[in-house]
């Protein structure tokens, strides 16, 4: 009986250790992006669209290959986030008020305060507000501020900001519709 309890305890301990190791390892998608040479050579290429090709790889397998230029991807998502934020909250640069301005205008007719707060995800960097990991001289002898972030973290951060802006847009549009329908019902009475 005592032997059985020890065996069960050992099995439980090994199962727990195995579970902890499996939880702590990163999946392929969560692994950090490291500089490495990637073989993207395929033969018998047939373009599917601008970024995808159909072809045969080194192992004689027919594959659909999608190649993404990470610099372009990061620039594109940064642009999308900036554009969406300007669309929602306006831009001092272009003197626009965005959807939030329309919401405030609607509420001002009813003499009410906004229920939804302005939630900027990108801060305008002003001179003197540089945040960086290191300050010093680069290889060319120029004084620089250097901030290093892992590419995967930067991309995830921008994608998260983009998703938050789209959620905020839905909230703002719902509040604008509620406000405008309330204004219409007041004016029709």
Entry summary:
The protein is of the alpha+beta class. The chain contains four helices and five strands, in the order H-E-E-E-H-H-E-E-H.
Cα-atom Rg, whole angstroms?
A: 27 Å
The total count of helices amounts to 4
- Spans of at least 5 consecutive residues with low confidence: 16-25, 126-130
Terminal-residue CA separation = 84 Å
Shape: flat
Query: Element order, helices and strands?
Result: HEEEHHEEH
Task: Give the amount of beta strand, in percent.
Answer: 5-15%
Determine the structural class based on helices, strands and strand pairing: alpha+beta
Layout of helices and strands, plus pairs?
Elements: H1 2-24, E1 43-47, E2 52-56, E3 62-66, H2 70-89, H3 98-109, E4 134-137, E5 143-146, H4 151-188
Antiparallel strand pairs: 1-2, 2-3, 4-5
């Amino acid at each position: 009986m005592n032997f059985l309890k020890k065996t069960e305890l050992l099995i439980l301990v090994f199962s727990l250790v195995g579970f902890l190791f499996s939880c702590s390892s990163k999946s392929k998608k969560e692994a950090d992006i490291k500089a490495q040479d990637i073989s993207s050579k395929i033969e018998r290429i047939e373009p599917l669209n601008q970024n995808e090709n159909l072809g045969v790889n080194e192992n004689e397998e027919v594959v659909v290959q999608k190649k993404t230029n990470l610099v372009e991807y990061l620039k594109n998502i940064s642009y999308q986030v900036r554009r969406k934020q300007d669309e929602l909250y306006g831009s001092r640069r272009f003197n626009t008020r965005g959807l939030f301005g329309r919401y405030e205008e609607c509420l001002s007719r009813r003499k009410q305060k906004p229920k939804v707060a302005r939630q900027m995800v990108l801060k305008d960097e002003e001179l003197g507000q540089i945040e960086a990991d290191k300050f010093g001289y680069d290889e060319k002898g120029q004084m620089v501020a250097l901030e290093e972030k892992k590419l995967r973290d930067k991309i995830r951060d921008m994608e998260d900001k983009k998703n938050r802006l789209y959620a905020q847009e839905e909230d703002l549009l719902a509040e604008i519709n509620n406000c405008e329908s309330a204004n219409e019902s007041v004016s029709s009475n």
